Amino acid sequence: MNKPINNEIIRIARESRGITQGELAATLSVTQGKISKMESGLLGVSDDMLDRLSNALNYPKDFFCFSDAIYGHGISMIGELYYRKRKNVPDKIIDKISARINIRRMHLVRLLRAIEIKNNLFETFNIDEYNGNVEKVAHAVRATWLLPKGPIKNLTKTIEDAGGIVVEFDFETKTIDATSQWVPDLPPLFFINVNAPADRLRFSLAHELGHIVMHKICKPDLELMEKEANYFASEFLMPRADISRSLDDINLTQIANLKPYWKVSMAALLHKAFDLKKITSRQYQYFWMQMGKAGYRTKEPPEFDIPKERPSLLREIVDTYRRKLEYTPKELSLLLGLHEQEVMSIYFDNPRPHGLTLVK
Prior knowledge:
Blueprint: H1 7-16, H2 21-28, H3 32-40, H4 47-57, H5 75-82, H6 91-111, E1 115-117, H7 134-144, H8 155-161, E2 165-169, E3 178-181, E4 189-193, H9 198-214, H10 222-237, H11 240-243, H12 252-262, H13 266-275, H14 281-293, H15 313-323, H16 329-336, H17 340-347, E5 356-358
Parallel strand pairs: 2-4
Antiparallel strand pairs: 1-5, 3-4
Helix pairs in contact: 1-6, 2-3, 5-10, 7-10, 9-10, 13-14, 16-17
């Protein structure tokens, strides 16, 4: 090939398939050292080796020439793994997730070259300017986005209407609910676990929104950032002034009845009641014991389940390429550096109207 091979893309391609260097070396009948040197740029890639890499990793040869920047896990995923006490995720899975997110981001870079997202309401908020009060930041974001009082009807649509892109993503583990990125020349990206329950998904998405608007610069104390993102999510979804009266003299039945209205978990409502000092520490522990005995700690009553929110903006972007720009599946696969079958499985879905503008 005339185009230079990007050694980092070799690693991204391998990790996205969940394959170690040793496993790839065995498949190609070469030493692991050779794979390592190719991935680090110390050894060139011949045309024959590129053919073999393409076949072994199931990516078109052009994909290995992508020159995009590669990004790491980001604040939110590090926080989930190490500070939200949800550990035991193998490094191989983490590498696979990170690689696949990098690839999806590369796709968005290409897709957005011809499409302009209508709104761009995202901005960063310096917590110090709010005297460290995370709740005030949540209020400021709601005010900036002109959100009415009370519960947010559809958080996913709210974020997309503000200019963010929400991506349904199979993390292949229950230990990660969501992660987010805001990199140069792209809108904020939110990757949500497609297998997460609807109420958990909403809180995780609000948590990621907190990271995006408050933590553009990483603080030394990652655990503090996780706590701030949780406080943000709670106040963004359940503003103190709006929910306070509903939490007076509560019991477990009342908490369950509030869930469909506020569209958060019973656990989140219980935390909110405690944060607002509507219940004592003793009552808080008692309610948790009740929820545990009823089995609600792992699965809340299905009759109070809320509908899962589905993102639509990414699907409409792809649909714009298919219908307005008249891209065939084959042409779209060339643009994205995937084989046609994989493009079909990831991106072809029926969109819901959202409002996009073609770049002139």
